[in-house]
Amino acid sequence: MGRLRKPKFHFKLRKPKIKLKGGSSWIFIGLIAGLFTGLFFGEMVGWMQWLGSAVIFLLQATVLPYMVMSLLYGVGSLTTGHAKLLFSKTSIVLVLLWVLGLLVILLLPLSFPEQLNASFFSASVLEVPPSPDYMKLYIPSNPFHSLAEGYVPAVVIFCMLFGVALIRIQNKQAFMSLTETSVTALSKMTGMIVKILPIGVFASTAAAAGTMTLEEFSSLQVFLISYMVLCLFLTFVLLPFTLSALTPFTYREVMTISRDSLITAFATGNILILLPVLTEQCKNIFHARGLATEETDKLIGVTMPVAFTFPNLGKLTVILFVLFAAWFVDKEPPFSLATMTSISGLFTLFGSVQVAVPFMLNLLEVPADLYQLFLISNVITSRFNSMVAALNLVVLVLITITMVQNQLRITLMRGLFYLGILAGGFVATLLLNRLITAPFVEDQYTQSSLVAEMKMVGQVPEKVYAELPKLYETGRFSKTTVAQIKQRNILRVGFHPKNVPFSYFNANGELVGFDISLAHQLASDLGVEIRFVPLDYNKLPIELGRGFYDIAMSGLAMTAERIADMSFTDPVLQLHVAVVGRDHELSVLSDPELLKKQTKLVIATLDHSDIVKHINRAYPNAEVVMLKDYEQFFEAKEGTYDALLVSAEAGYAWTVLYPEFGVWIPTNAKKRVPVAYALNRSNNDLLSYLDDWLDIQQSNDFIGQQYEFWILGGGAKHRPPRWSVIKDLLGWVGDKSEPDE
User: Fold this and answer.
1) Is the pLDDT of residue 458 over 90?
2) pTM more than 0.85
3) Count of CA atoms in the C-beta half-sphere (13 A) of 558
4) pLDDT tens figures, 602-618
5) Which residue(s) pair with 672 in the sheet?
6) By the 8 A CB rule, do 314 and 271 touch?
7) Rounded distance, CA 552 to CA 86, Å?
8) Residue 462 φ/ψ, nearest 5 degrees
9) Are strands 551-552 and 490-495 parallel, antiparallel or unpaired?
10) What SUPFAM superfamilies does the annotation carry (predicted)?
11) Which residues contact 143 (CB under 8 A, 6 or more apart)?
């Protein structure tokens, strides 16, 4: 015990082949200098990102070749006994670290403060991302293709198989000498490139600090803080103390040898480029302590790239987001369900994080819309989980090699001592996280804030009627020409008051939306005032025929039934047909076979009569209910309706207000519905004018701008220019960005 606490650790005993130039001092200086540069100059230094990326790309150039040669040389040099021993020990250590990491992640939500439910704005994602091809990811059918595409697991498997075959070959000295020389050359090449790493760290940090704003992470305050606390605990407590409890290496030794890599991983957010460096650092610590044998370097050269292909604790930290998402929507699962979800997520993390997170959200019946928040948070979280991943690889390799070489140092008293440190440290972490995150839940915004606060600009004088005026009931305006509209100085527009995002009332009681903005632009071009008259979708032909309003503009779908009774302009938009349902029921709604097995299926809709006929034919057990407005569906008691047939564009906007619902877009049908403006069939003069007017608005991109603002949520994303010292504090430069409207 006493000897272990007084190590003979000294870097001069053996210089690593790859060393971060200047040690952590230059990298740390680059990190701090980049931070201050970004804060001082703000968005003016955003261009530096390309310089940081260039350095990272240079480092990546040696990674896969180094991995290939290191594995071929390392595995090929092993005996059969050594190979079996190494892989069995690696598996034991890997499972141990998984269990410890999952336990910490599952217990950390206990420190989440009590909170009021909140919401967020989700972009309308219409394209379904392709699922990862696990065959290509893991099966090296074409090793050269795997190398070119960067399929690391497939490359490792190929090299492992090749290396195992080499073990039994007798005359392999020439090949082994070539691979050993290649590893040395690649190590020197990496060593030359890492000399400029402080420059890359400086550039990447300056660009991030200069362009990143805290406002866009307002919904993620509790998660981001908890995530940082988790990663710091794993990096500076769990992993190093677990290593110290099992091996001769002390906390100070492992943190000293890993310091440069941790800073680099945090600054770049990239763990792949550090594999050669981490490998050499692990070799160095064994030689520095005099624990290296003839096989140590070979064993480390094999273990490091093999360990990289498995989910590390850095990857496992994304499970915390899933648990946060459940807390965020007030659907905290029981510990047993959270555990099963985490274990299932562990296996999906063998592939892609982008697949694992939505999969786990679905298992916990959490709104899939929250995945958008995960993508936003990745800008920050990737840096912290890269730091965890770097130390995880070091600890995994060091414990594995000490097991293989029978150098473990395990005693009862030693185990209890470090167990007490870990338990005490984790309790302190829970208390600290609760203390820090509690103040942030008090300022959460209400569910409807983002959509309800959207506004229009450049309005013409308007009047909004709550019901049809008596004057219009006479039918005196049943036929309206452009000249008559200009003469009376009034354009009358039919609208639906609850058709988000096309026409609805915002928090200030103002009538806003996509079609309302176009109506104002139309009135402005005509040089007239505007009157908004409420319409009834089920009585459109009658109301247009009697002249209750000149034009109906409210997300109106063109259907075969409607074109027989009224005239339509050229399509304004092509909307995507979608189904809205409670998020945990979307898996059933998206499976035609499961739908057919339902004894009763109640589908609500408002404006898609053509598709209703198809539903009745495809699903005889379905009952289609026509709604008065969409709010009727979302406010209904659970179980009243099974699904809502709506456009994806409108469906996503409504789920902002009701995040417990999700949207499913049928990918096989790709059904689109044209949306246009309706008129009385006899108003040919106005119809001709509107078609030409819409062509102009399409050409000058006004319609595209309104689509971005109202339907894709651009109007809910207020992003002021990034604060900077040079602009906002010293006033040396002006704000060249366009002012907010």
Assistant:
1) no
2) no
3) 18
4) 888 887 666 777 776 77
5) 576
6) yes
7) 73
8) -135, 165
9) parallel
10) Periplasmic binding protein-like II (SSF53850), Proton glutamate symport protein (SSF118215)
11) 154, 155, 158
Enumerate residues 6+ apart whose C-beta is below 8 A from 105. Answer: 230, 316, 317, 319, 320, 323, 342
Query: Which two three-digit tokens encode residue 365?
Result: 């019946």
Per DSSP, the residues of 3-33 read TTTS----GGGS--SS--TTHHHHHHHHHHH
State the DSSP H helix or E strand holding residue 664, giving kind and residue range, or none if neither. Answer: strand 661-664
Residue with tokens 């990737």: 382
* Stated length of the chain: 741
Tell me if residue 158 falls in helix, strand or coil.
helix
Calpha distance 326→381 (Å, rounded)? 19
- Is 624 strand, coil or helix? strand
**Nearest residue to 223 (alpha-carbon basis) of 102, 81, 374, 121:** 374
pLDDT-based confidence at residue 181 (cuts at 50, 70, 90): very high
Please tell me the distance from the alpha carbon of residue 368 to that of residue 590, in angstroms, as a whole number: 14
Residues ≥6 apart with Cβ < 8 Å to 707: 514, 573
> Which of the residue ranges 68-82, 442-456, 601-615 has the most confident prediction, judged by mean pLDDT?
68-82
Q: Which residues fall within 8 angstroms of residue 526, CB to CB, at 6 or more apart?
A: 482, 485, 486, 491
Comparing CA positions, the residue from 558, 575, 560 lying closest to residue 676 is 558
Residue with tokens 């005993």: 13
CB 713 within 8 A of CB 121: yes
Residue type at 212? M
Q: Identify the residue with better confidence: 160 or 619.
A: 160
Amino acid at 66: Y
Dihedral, CA atoms, 287, 288, 290, 292, nearest 10 degrees? -20
Distance in angstroms (rounded) separating the CA atoms of residues 713 and 728: 28
Distance between the two ends of the chain, CA-based, in angstroms? 69
How far, in Å, CA of 190 to CA of 63, rounded? 9
CA distances from 738 to 381, 710, 720, 735 (A): 31, 20, 10, 8
Alpha-carbon span 339 to 395, nearest angstrom:
25
Q: Which long-range contacts (CB under 8 A, 24 or more apart) does 345-354 make?
A: 345/318, 345/319, 346/98, 346/102, 346/311, 346/316, 346/319, 349/311, 349/315, 349/316, 349/318, 350/153, 350/310, 350/311, 351/132, 351/134, 351/137, 352/132, 353/315, 353/318, 354/129
The residue type at 194: V
Distance of alpha carbon 139 from alpha carbon 143, whole angstroms = 9
Q: How far apart are CA 232 and CA 715, in angstroms?
A: 37
Among 330, 319, 378, 393, CA closest to 118: 330
Output the six-digit token pair for 612.
């209703």
Identity of residue 254: V
Burial (CB < 10 A; 0-12, 13-18, 19+), residue 105, is: buried
Q: Which residue has the higher pLDDT, 405 or 357?
A: 405
- Please return the burial class of 217, using the count of CB atoms within 10 Å of its CB with bins 0-12, 13-18 and 19+: middle
Amino acid, single-letter form, for residue 268 = T
Torsion of CA 541, 546, 552, 557, to 10 degrees: 0
**Span 288-301, mean pLDDT?**
86
How far apart, in whole angstroms, are the C-alpha atoms of residue 306 and residue 51? 31
